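Deliverable D5.2: sample structural annotation.
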Amino acid sequence: MKTTSWFSLYKMLIRTSIRSRMQYKFNFIMGSVLAALIQISEFLMVALVLHKFGAIKGWSLHEIGYLFAIMTLSKTLYRTFGNEVHHLEKYLVGGELDQLLTRPMPVLLALLPQNFRIMAGEVLQGGFILCWSLAGIMHSGQIGWTVIPFSLLVILTGAIILFSIGLATATLGFWTTRIEELQTITEDAARTAAQYPLTLYPKWMSGILLTVIPVGFVNYVPSLYLLRGELGAWVLVAIVVVAVLSLAASLRFWKFGLTKYQSTGS
């Protein structure tokens, strides 16, 4: 019964956040368009290089487009529902977390709906590249239509893994307070690196991206099976297990970190 009431309160907070953002519709539309243009220009730069020199380490333009799109959509799903985890530092520095501690619901559940984002531009851009990539690969006969529903599963598990990494990094802020530089490494840099085949990197680096910061399980590992038929169907089970274990571990770490929180007094 308590869980149901928390969920109802969570939905109400999301609706309130959305209504506040939609008060400025022009800013929302322009922000969505600019976000889509910025994201797609990044991929176009890679596409131009591949068009000129061909495949990279045996990965075609459409395959790399698939990696790029899956990572983009997974990140978009994570940031839509969990964006404030990435901005926990401002709550720690400004003492705003104290306000959330007084609410009659778990702190994390109160934090997530704050400044809820509708990332329409990223969805359009990632969706377009995903459809284009799948169409190209299917046209070559490399894959069948069954890859489409499995790709949706990959996006979901990828979002959970990225959220878990973001939550674990944010939790370190209970000891360090400042976490922006660390997030640049664990979230931004790691995610950018995983937009491309991990075979491009030294073994020690690809090992880190598969174990310490498991962004490789967001798109690279499942693509080996879905696009190339490598490893085996167990990969789909593995990414679900990694997502569940990552989420459980990060939530446990968060709960422990809360016990170490000290208010700024502001």
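Annotation notes: Residues 78 and 176 are 24 Å apart (CA to CA). The chain has one domain: 21-258.
The annotation will be released with the project's public dataset once the embargo ends.
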